[in-house]
Amino acid sequence: MKVILTHEVAKLGQPGDVVTVKDGYGRNYLIPRGYATAWTKGAQRQIDQINEARRRRVTEDLESARASREALEAKTLEIAKTAGTNGRLFGAVTTADVAKVASQITGKSVDRRQVNLMSVIKSVGEYTGSVKLADEIVANVKINVVAE
Q1: Which residues does 106 contact at the CB level (< 8 Å), separation at least 6?
Q2: What's this model's pTM, rounded to 2 decimal places?
């Protein structure tokens, strides 16, 4: 029996894969639990359309991430924090602070977990960090911390 997987199934495949399984496994386990649907020509056409749309979306996302990388690497991220007279900050610059400024520059949402700081930022000065925009696209950014 041919089925189209709708969820990831261990040792069988990923969503959208067409696999051949024994009739009982397909009818009694995969289909009732919603892990798969029966294969038909119409369902195969629908899966092909979904895969094509997914491929286009991934390509657009990669192009958008490359443009965001260029924008981030072209600018220095300015972060203003309150500091003492010796230039030491009251607190520290966090990944959330960097993500907020990066979001303003790119116009897209950047999560704090996408930001990696090379060192802890606790004083005024210039630092480096990176922002992971996609699986293989990372923007190396310059961070300038100034006193308010």
Answers
A1: 68, 71, 72
A2: 0.70
Neighbours of 40 (CB within 10 A): 11
- Residues 76, 140, single domain; the answer is yes
Whose tokens are 């990831």? That residue is: 8
User: Looking at residue 98, which CATH number applies to its domain?
Assistant: 3.10.430.100
Residues belonging to the chain: 148
* 35-87 residue pLDDT tens: 999 999 999 898 889 889 989 999 999 999 999 999 999 999 999 999 998 99
Domain that holds residue 112: 66-145
Average model confidence (pLDDT) across the chain: 93
Give whole-number Cα distances, 59 to 11, 21, 62, 136, in Å. Answer: 28, 33, 5, 13
Q: Please tell me what DSSP assigns to residue 141.
A: E
* 116, β-bridge pairs: 130
